[in-house]
Amino acid sequence: MTHAIDDGLWSAVGDPTRRRMLDLLLRDGGGTATTLSRQLPVTRQAVAKHLDLLHRVGLVHVTPSGRERRYEVDEARLARAVAQLSSVGAAWDARLHRIKRIAEAIQRSQDT
User: Fold this and answer.
1) Fewest CB atoms less than 10 Å from the CB: which of 8, 33, 44, 79?
2) Better pLDDT: 49 or 90
């Protein structure tokens, strides 16, 4: 993955409305902007814009369905995103643990 794709992915999953939309799409096996807008506190147009962004970063697939478009989560891409986010979280946990050990060592040296 390139940095631009990663940045877009992080931006996409960083928004609580888009995370809720992914949850709903996973739960329901897909949906349209209309069906999602009935379950969210945003307009259908706002839902469509969020879905477009999710599609651009590859988290959802789009299939024409009559006058609407049906969206389904790309579970493989979502799994890769979760793995990437977990990896970054683990790296930050390790960094913070090292900082804590350094701070504790400094504190001990000042106490003696």
Assistant:
1) 79
2) 49
Q: What class does CATH assign to 3-111? A: mainly alpha
Cβ count within 10 A of residue 20 = 16
- Rounded to 10°, the helix 16-28/3-14 angle is 80
Name the burial class of residue 31, with classes exposed (0-12), middle (13-18) and buried (19+) by CB atoms within 10 angstroms of its CB. buried
pTM confidence score: 0.75
* Cβ neighbours, 10 Å, residue 50: 22
Closest listed residue to residue 48, CA positions, set 21, 30, 29, 28: 21
